[in-house]
Amino acid sequence: MDNAQAVSVKYTNWLGETAVRRLILGDVRYGTTDWHQQETWLISAFDLDHPAQIWKEFDLTKMDFTCAMQPSPSEAAIEWAVGKWRDEVKNRPLQNVHRRALDDTWRTVMRHFGGDPDELVGPSHDALRAIAGEGQ
User: Fold this and answer.
1) Is 19 exposed, middle or buried (0-12, 13-18, 19+ CB in 10 A)?
2) Is the dihedral angle over the CA atoms 57, 63, 65, 67 positive or is it negative?
3) Phi, psi dihedral angles at 44 (to 5 degrees)
4) Helix or strand or coil: residue 49?
5) What does the alpha-carbon distance between residue 113 and residue 67 come to, in Å, rounded to a whole number?
6) Between the CA of residue 66 and those of 79, 86, 135, what are the distances in Å?
7) Whole-angstrom distance, CA of residue 129 vs CA of residue 65
8) Contact predicate 7/65, CB 8 Å
9) Using CA atoms, how far apart are residues 51 and 17, in angstroms rounded to an integer?
10) What is the DSSP letter of 35?
11) What average pLDDT does the structure give for the chain?
12) Where along the chain do its domains lie?
């Protein structure tokens, strides 16, 4: 299964237990199951968080899709690091004694969480100094 197709959904099961599940959604039908004995809208989904990673049916009325709209922890960390880079590095002159260390630090954080610093904030301090002919 391709995790790229997965959505995060807050789901309350038939026992009243609520958890965020990562699901790959399938077909929708109206009916019952052994766990949902009153007729309801059901959606089949591949449950990436189930130990056996199986297809099962979920009660659509017990699903909260709003958590799917929240950034993942990695995305949130990258956004935070980009913000910190903009606050602490972007407008410092290339000759500033702290600029290189701050640039390296925030780029390391971006890479750690899967971001590409060159795409997110542009060339590195060292690359900019090389372009300016200043060396390190």
Assistant:
1) exposed
2) negative
3) -80, 145
4) coil
5) 20
6) 20, 29, 49
7) 47
8) yes
9) 17
10) S
11) 87
12) 3-69, 73-131
